[in-house]
Each structure stands twice: as structure tokens, then as C-alpha cells.
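Protein folds are increasingly written down as C-alpha cells. With that in mind, we are printing a sequence and the C-alpha cells encoding its fold.
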Amino acid sequence: MLFKRRRAPSPVRRNASDDWRATLPREKNQVFESIVRDWECSYAMLSVSLDEALAQRARGELVCAQQQVAITSELLFRLTSTLTNACAVLSESGKRVTNLPLVQPLHTEFFRGDTGQSAASWNSLLHNVLLGHRSRFFHKLRILSNTVEHLGVEFEQNAHDIASGLSVEPAACWKQLDSLHYDLNTCLRESEVMLKSFLHAVPAEQLAVFGTELSRPRTAARPRPVPRATRATA
């Protein structure tokens, strides 16, 4: 009696949530922990600086608040440069990886401002149109990088207007800084998820080069704020 050979079950692809919960191998986890530690440190310094500026303004120390927000802007630029560089490295390295991880689109409810919500809406729309998971991976990286860059430009402009005393509506500018800071945090968390998912997929023989590229400092051109004509107190 002949029996039909059973077809081997297809491997089940893990989603982004599975990748996030799964433990990385030791060498890959070392890369992940090192990179994320640097990101978190930069974000923590940014957050402390912004909180101090907001507290000084609340106490009526407007000159000090203006000086502090200029420092905050510099810290934010360092973080946005780091994150956009990470997206570029992930995208370039992804071209050499056959089995890229599955990704989920950005969610509009995780953003406060128009920039982040528009980017998330566009990413979600195209995510359902793009057929292959490779296209979705690279598209999310492009959207994430562009969103970080635009958030940085907006923060720089508002911070410059406050620090220079040129803001027409200083209260609105301060509120915008808080909103942009929140949305940048969302982008940071998304970047961490993308990084860990990619590390699950990257072959062991490519890990050293990938880690070196990700850790290498890059110089980025800082955008110049557009001068404003009307002066107001902070």
C-alpha cells in the first residue's frame, strides 16, 4: 500500500510583536542593547532639558527658558540625526538580507501632531497596497526617517523663534515643542522595534559589519530656521 508523502509545513513568519518579545541571540542582543542604550541616553537628555525649559517658563524665568530651549534644540538635532542615520543603515543593510522581517504600519493614534499623523496615515494606506513584505519594510523605513527629519525641522523652527524672542504666539510654540517631543518618542520606539526585528533576520556573518555601520558617527547638515519678523515675549 502506497502512502502519499506529507508535505512539510511552511515555516510560520513571526510578526513585529513576536520579534519584539523574542529573545535575541547573545551577540545580536549585545548590538541591540548597545545601540538602544545610546538612543535612550540621548532621548533622556533631551527630555530633561525640555522639562527644565518648560519649568523655567512656568516660573516666569523667561530669559533662562529661552536659553534652555536653545540647548534642547541642539540635543534634539543630535537624536534626529542618529535616528535618520539608523534608518539609512537598516535600509542599506536590508538589501543584503533575504528574509526581511514583517512590519506593521505606523498608527495615527500614536501621534499628536499633523506631521506624524499624516505620515502614519500614508504609511498605513500604502502598507495595504504594497504586495511584498520587502516593499513594506523599506517603505516604513523611508516614512519613519522622513517623519523624524520633519519633526526635527519643526522643533528647530519653534525653538529658534522662542530663543530669539521672535515668536508671534509664544504659548503656541511652547505647546508645539511638547507635541513634537511626544511624536519623536513614538518614532524612537518604532525605530527600536524595527532594529530588533531586523537583528532577528540578519545573518550572523553580516552582524559585525552591520553593528559597525550603525555605531559609526555621521555628520548631518543642520537646517537653518527661517527668520521671523515679529517679536514677542516668551
User: Anything to note?
Assistant: The radius of gyration is 21 Å. Residues 1-5, 7-11 have pLDDT under 50 and may be disordered. The helical segments are 16-21, 26-58, 62-94, 114-127, 133-163, 170-201, 204-215.
